[in-house]
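User: Hi! Is it possible to get a structure for several chains at once, not just one? Here's what I have:
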Amino acid sequence: MKVQRCKGMRDLTPGEMAAFRLVEGICRDCCSRWGYQEVRTPTIEYLYLFTSAGTLTPGRLGKVYSFLDWDGWSGERVVLRPDGTIPVARLYIENLEDRGLARLFYATNIFIFEEEGEKTRERWQCGAELIGAGSAMADTELIALSLEVLKTLGLKGVELRLSHAGLIKTLLEKLGLSPEEQHRLFDQILDGDAEALNRINQKKPELENTLLPLLGMKGQSPGFLKNQRALLAQSMPEIGPYLDDFLQTVALLETLGLSYQIDIASGADFEYYTGMIFQLFIGGEKIGGGGRYDALISSMGGGDVPASGFALYLDRLMNLVKPEVFVKTVPERVLVRVKDAGAMKEAFEVADGLRKAGYIAELDLGEQEPDAFRWVIEVKGEAVPLSLWDGVSSRRVEVPAITEVLKLLEGEGGDKDSPA
Amino acid sequence: MAIKIALPKGRLLRKTAALLQKADWGLDEYHSNMGFYRPKSQKFPEILIRVFHEKDIPVQIAMGNYDLGICCLDWIEELLSKYPSSDLVKVKELLYGEGVLYMAATSPLAELLQNRSLVRIASEYPNLAERFALKNRLSRFSVFPLWGAAEVYPPENADIALLSAKAGADLDSYNMAPVSRVLDFSAFLIANRRSWESKNLGNVVTSICDMLPKNGEKGHSKERVIQPRTLMSHFMKETGRNMVRLALPDGHQQQPTIDLLNKAGIEMNDYPSDTGNRRPKINIEGVSVKVIRPQDMPLQVANGNFDLAVTGRDWLAEHLNQFPSSPVKELLDLGFGRVRLVAVVSRELAVDDTNGLRQYIDESGEPLRVASEYVNIADRYARDNHLGHYRVIPTWGATEAFLPEDADLLVENTETGRTLARHNLKIIDTLFESTACLIGGTGRVNSVKGKRVKYIIEKLRTAVQGA
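Assistant: Yes, the chains can be modeled jointly so their relative placement is included. Here is the combined structure:
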């Protein structure tokens, strides 16, 4: 009987894993350099962490892996982590709230029950959360950090789309819908339902001239927002603070010379956003996004703490990264072959010496294909105990000691890790 | 390949039988007193017909054991709400068996949500109940899955109950009112997706659909959902902190239970009840009684909804297999209702023990289908005996009829073994013996209540020992 992996789950083979680790490593390095500290939350959380209004949209809640665990006699369900941000917010409340400002990052898997066979149900993401700061500078820091990661990965053609949750909500209030309908429409927009606005359009034609163009507005400069502000100052004064908030972030991005697109009705999947929302695309594919969620921590029983964050989708990034970006970083592999059974100890020592010098040393178990290795060392345990075979020049050199081997490898420009 | 069709017992039986009669199927044994579950049709002698508990039918269709089935939309949606990618096609609404699923309560929902951080939902439809809770953004909720009698849980043991009724007015008799109309349902003809795509089911489907009223109007009238006033507040008063809450079984364990209670000098008023009263009176002060399904009792006791309950050791074991840390335990063996839990295969299978079963699995190359009412005991049994790749099929009674076509192994209870023998089955293993028992929580209770609990246990112990 052939045992297969679960539907919707993915294996990462050695080649894929190398790409994964590279992307994850660059995320980690960048976040660390900006002062973010790594955290890890459990795979299983209580369902109710995610069910309160203002956390996950119904579309996402309908796809959680929820079940009764061994303590499930209380009828309370647990879930496989469906989102990265909410558990980190919980971790902050439980462990770090006295700190005030916290810069945290994580690399984790999240689980979403997708029905279509193509989509994977376990996804990896690397995210950063900036908790305790509520300024345009904080928003800009996150955007700049996420762009830096993508740049370091050598990715080109990154598109940054901006929106503002407060703005969307205020505009929806103006559509004259019941609170329930507003809520539903907001969720639909966040779930990425581009048609949601058009359906309203048909129902209330009198709104066509004023509000809907606003929700559909797109632009590429602070001037655009200022124009909108001038236009709306009279008719919709309540929208002023949100536009001002948005303007500040946009102006800062402008100062830093970062290009962006304003697209108010762009979806973002999460109901917890309260302010600026940003999304990152390459070639039309979404590769990450984030935003401000100032109400989340207080709604979960924590203090009134502003926060924002982002997540980058590792599964998608690892497919986009060009192989040459990470090929160089892999050290040279050397095969260590024992010629004489009595030389076993020496063989282990030679391999150890190679590893300490930063090479990958594999012991020949008789199964390896020597062609996959440029260098093969034979350990003979005789007067001249070692012989080094160079697969490129097809030359064999007899060497007395490991130090000589290292010199020879060095001279040939063998790539290695810098020794610890 | 022959067409296989699953027909319902229970609430849909009479009207389904009438429909097929009208369609001239000429079924030989499809009525409420049937002993076997495999009727034959004169019109379609080649098709295989099996009669199931209605709740089993969507599962059987989705698994592909049957090509076509008839059951109500409530059970279809219960499956699809948790497993939306099930291989099940809704072919045709059959315009009978109408009902409504209501979320019902004894007080308005807003009031409930205000006063509680945790909303307790009791239902035979746990998946639909969860979907309701998520859709209505109940932030924290518990779903108590039930075998039945959901109407008796609110207000003490649950805040709301998801249950079926003909109309909202029917809930009056339970002193409840609807807070939400969750689903309008009626009988449906359903098909397995692959069968529907690949098999010719035309003749059978046509013969059924031709019998339906031409411009069939659905019987559902739109009624307004009226929020309940705060009803039956005296129930609340009854549940003081010193009150001992005792759960007694419905169904066939009622007679031996009342016999034992009487022997212990405990008198009941209206138990067993002719009118379906589930709140009989007892002659001990400070004790209130509810009549619920024995299957549901361990979970209820674990959650502190009852202090004492008369159930079977099989159901306690089933609960503890699923939730090993659950705070519920056996207090007293009541001695009656003796059954054995056994592993059963068809007599036609050359398997006599678990060794033979493992060998059979190795040779067949297909996953072993284990059918049981005791899903968690069956799962544990399959795990402990290394039955390899297996699937547990939950059933709701009459499991013995699943062999040999629809399952390979049963985990079943048997009193004498006669029913099993009549169905051409053989026992290959005995898991354990079960009798009725008194169960209670493992936590501490206050001293007044503790004394009352002890009084009841001692009375029953004396009666059992004198038996």
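Residues 447-465 of chain B form the longest helix (19 residues). The domain at 4-97+186-209 of chain B is CATH 3.40.190.10 (D-Maltodextrin-Binding Protein; domain 2).

User: Great, thank you!
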